[in-house]
Specification:
- The chain is an alpha+beta fold.
- The protein has helices at about 5-15, 25-30, 40-45, 55-65, 80-105, 110-125, 135-140, 150-160, 180-185, 190-205, 210-220, 225-230, 270-275, 285-290, 330-350; strands spanning about 35, 70, 75-80, 130, 165, 175-180, 235-240, 245-250, 265, 300-305, 305-315, 320-325, 355.
- It is built from 15 helices and 13 strands.
- The strands form 4 sheets. It has a 5-stranded mixed β-sheet with strand order 9-10-11-12-13. It has a 3-stranded antiparallel β-sheet with strand order 1-3-2, with helices on both faces.
- Helix 5 (about 80-105) runs antiparallel to helix 8 and helix 11 (about 210-220) packs across helix 12 (about 225-230).
- The longest helix is centred in the N-terminal third of the chain and has 25 residues, at about 80-105.
- The model has no long low-confidence stretch (mean pLDDT about 95).
């Protein structure tokens, strides 16, 4: 195995090539979690791993609670499946709270405050209510809890980590919150060892080949915990050394074969193909990174599994403009592959796309 093999197998395991998932829910289930502070980008990430799903269809699934959004893994939002949300929180919330500890102290938030704020949320939301962030701020004010700016954000995040809140339906373009017990009443917890083994197995099946430090970064767990997870899931995993680095992957994984090149993906900024790894040696040329300037600070253009530039979107009422930032001019065949990726994005949004560079 070499870096080209790593790249090809990741594309396959992440369902960006080969057999796509049948439904959007299957994508989220397979990947365990899809980073989602950019909700529009997360929907596009899911769409590229299935067939013919639209932006509007993903909104309907989200509104119906088929896919949920909450703070889990690293201190950021992820889309997760209802049946996974509680055991994943049980495993990773302590690490997220540890990462947040400094901000908790700075904002004068302690266990007593969190107990009061969580109680106020349960009383306000029980019975199927859904409230926006602004409405929840008023709930806190009425309960005598200071809640604005960062303090409001960390009160809400802590309620998600405590398995009190999760996403409710969109109200127009605004996000709402609902009670996790009502949104995912059948979600089950697991023992810590069972949860760690499952998360480890599923990460390396869907994201492998990957390093131990990649898994620790993605999950928010310590390296010690990541190594323990590998030992627990070892019967389902195998490993190989590439460039002196030990890569882990599922013992039984799809055979991907050769890529039909050139192949272009327009990935969102937090796509699992990039954000799920600490080490980007297999997918990102350091020389390109130095030459690209701010190109790689946007969404990412990926050619044959390697990041080659960036793109940005400007969505208007009836059309979308895609602005390309490619340090190297695409060759003729690559331009055609890029155009196909752009057209697919337009079909997903249900809008015509114009391109600038």
């Amino acid at each position: 195995m070499d870096n080209l093999d790593v790249t090809r197998q990741r594309l396959c395991n992440e369902r960006l090539v080969g057999r796509p998932c049948e439904r959007p829910e299957d994508v989220v289930q397979w990947l365990c979690a899809v980073q989602a502070q950019d909700y529009a980008g997360a929907k596009w990430a899911i769409a590229q791993r299935t067939t013919d799903v639209t932006d509007a269809e993903l909104d309907r699934l989200f509104n119906d609670g088929k896919i949920l959004r909450t703070h889990v893994l690293r201190p950021t939002w992820h889309l997760v499946m209802p049946q996974d949300i509680r055991w994943m929180l049980g495993l990773t919330a302590p690490r997220v709270n540890a990462a947040n500890a400094y901000q908790y102290r700075q904002l004068e938030l302690d266990d007593a405050v969190f107990a009061r704020s969580n109680d106020a949320l349960v009383k306000a939301l029980q019975g199927g209510a859904q409230l926006t962030r602004t409405e929840i701020a008023r709930v806190f004010e009425e309960a005598g809890i200071r809640a604005s700016g960062l303090r409001l954000a960390y009160l809400l995040m802590r309620a998600e980590l405590d398995a009190v809140l999760c996403s409710g339906p969109l109200r127009g373009k605004q996000f709402t919150y609902a009670l996790l017990d009502e949104r995912a009443p059948s979600a089950k917890a697991q023992g810590r060892d069972e949860a760690l083994a499952e998360l480890t197995r599923r990460y390396f099946a869907s994201h492998g080949p990957a390093l131990v430090k990649d898994f620790a970064w993605w999950s928010g767990l310590t390296l010690t915990e990541a190594r323990a997870g590998i030992e627990m899931a070892r019967a389902h995993l195998q490993h190989e050394t590439v460039d002196g680095k030990v890569h882990w992957f599922a013992a039984k994984q799809a055979r991907c074969g050769e890529l039909e090149t050139p192949l272009v993906h327009l990935l969102p900024n937090y796509d699992e193909y990039v954000i799920a790894y600490k080490d980007h040696g297999a997918t990102l040329d350091p020389a390109l990174l130095r030459a690209a300037g701010d190109a790689l600070m946007a969404h990412l253009v990926v050619l044959d599994g390697r990041v080659v530039g960036g793109w940005r979107r400007t969505i208007q009422r009836r059309a979308v403009t895609v602005t390309m930032n490619l340090p190297l001019r695409p060759k003729k065949g690559e331009q055609a592959a890029l155009q196909r990726a752009i057209e697919r994005y337009g079909r997903f949004l249900g809008m015509p796309v114009t391109v600038s560079s």
